[in-house]
Amino acid sequence: HKDCVIKAQVHAGGRGKGMFSSGLQGGVHVCDISQNVDDIVQKSSMMIGHNLSTKQTTGEGAPVSKVLLAERLYSRRELYVAFVMDRAAQGVALVCSTRGGVNIEEIAEEDPDAIIKV
Asked: In whole angstroms, what is the distance from residue 22 CA to residue 60 CA?
């Protein structure tokens, strides 16, 4: 099997749990490229040209004009590293976690000590 990942390219977190205006659930999908290319085409067409609503978008969602198609890799360890704008400090902050990047907002709520901000 040759797995690939299709990711909607939007400036919003939580895209994996989002909902498209086309009815497609989630902005990240894993497909087996060796078995069914039609699945990739179908999912991509339900993303491109449609809005993706997440916790971080407005009610109508963010328009998707591009998707990323990449080989699925299996990592031994997932880390989260991001440079974000810190409005309070009026500058850039480095945010890190050893608990990975999926659901980082939930991790921050459940275990604030798991997030390091510099």
From this structure: 12
Please tell me whether the overall predicted TM-score, pTM, comes out greater than 0.90 for this model: no
pLDDT tens string 75-97: 788 889 999 999 998 999 999 99
Helix (H) or strand (E) holding 40: helix 37-47
Task: List pLDDT tens digits, range 3-44.
Answer: 899 999 998 888 888 999 999 999 999 998 877 788 899 999
In contact, 34 and 1? CB cutoff 8 Å: yes
As a whole number of angstroms, the distance between CA 1 and CA 17 comes to 25
CA dist., res. 66 & res. 6, Å (int): 10
